[in-house]
Design a protein that fits this description.
It contains 14 helices and 22 strands. With 411 residues, the protein is α+β, with helices and mostly antiparallel strands. The strands form six sheets. It has a seven-stranded antiparallel beta sheet with strand order 17-16-13-14-15-12-18. Strands 6-2-1-10-22 form a five-stranded parallel beta sheet, covered by helices on one side.
Amino acid sequence: MTHKHKLVIIGGGAAGIFASVICAENSTDLEIIVLEKTRQLLSKVRISGGGRCNVTHAQFDPRKLISNYPRGSKELLGPFHHFQPQDTIAWFHNHGVELKTEEDGRMFPITDHSATIINCLLSTAKDRGVDIRCEQAVRSIQKDGNRFTLHLEEQDRVECDYLILATGSSPNGHLLASSLGHSIVPPVPSLFTFNVPTSPLNDLAGISVDDVEISLKGSIFKQRGSILITHWGFSGPAALKLSAWAARDLHVCNYRTEISMNWIPSFKKEEALDLLCKIKQEKPKKTFDSENPFHLPMNLWKRLLNLSDIPIGSTLAHLSKKNLSDLAEWLTHSSFSQEGKTTYKQEFVTSGGITLKEIDFKTMESRLVKNLFFAGEILDIDGVTGGFNFQNAWTTAYLASLSISERTKEP
């Protein structure tokens, strides 16, 4: 009688559950166990996209797709040629779930409910005989020859031939990996909003501006896109992307730095000032609060006038060159003091994890330990907001699972 291979996956999140399903679909001679330390499976899937689950992103060119990963872009290029968003869409379609694309490229189930994705993954795992065990924390791992021994609480042990670590940003996952010889890039937060308690705009919370350039003063980091003014500072896609790309630098300065905002990024200060002077010359009897030449949200525009010492209702003829210069400065170089970060809803992503040079990205196998594989956010890979972190989970889980499935078929 032939020995039935056993795979254990540590972590019941997106990467772990998807890995179990792919393995089960591609190997009939494999016992698959998922160990999840908490009571709840797929917790990030549940809360993603405000409970709708941002499954992936409609970017089907691998070279463009990798530009959305502040860390791991080079390593993901090859994997995305094997399993990318089109493949994610096809997989869910083949399992009865249709996805839709929103204007910004984010993709959600047509039901607009994360339970659709959760039910699909868990029911497929159950139908394929995957053994999912919750509240099973792994304390330590030993490698004995070609097999792993996992020590759980209360002297419980599980042995296996293959092991996938898919523990997300969990410190315990990093400890387990380092005990097997892997090095860890210390995790720091990514994808967070900017806490600016002294901002003169905080009472304008709820105002969104579609095209803004936000940057960190004295650095190379800047992003252009939509900004949301909040009662604590700034959020929105451009702010979140900036937090991801500058995650390590922001951590080093303890999230205390100067943020600069260009509310009219098509203009430099001199160009904005020239236009303001021209309008003053051509329409001296007009008022700026009625003119609003840059078509900013009216309450924001009026606040910028106020910050430039321009009284609401004053005619352009009464404005000095200094008034106009101050307004041009506020429009193109508004400066704010960041004094901390705020988590983006509950969608907490970290920069850091397993050092990427220790992984074979053709198979997702450890270069240090045979038959040890990694998937998802445990790796030092993180994407910006928009479905990219889940795509990393689907892709790396798929490659790890396919590699194991192929290996179990070897004579």
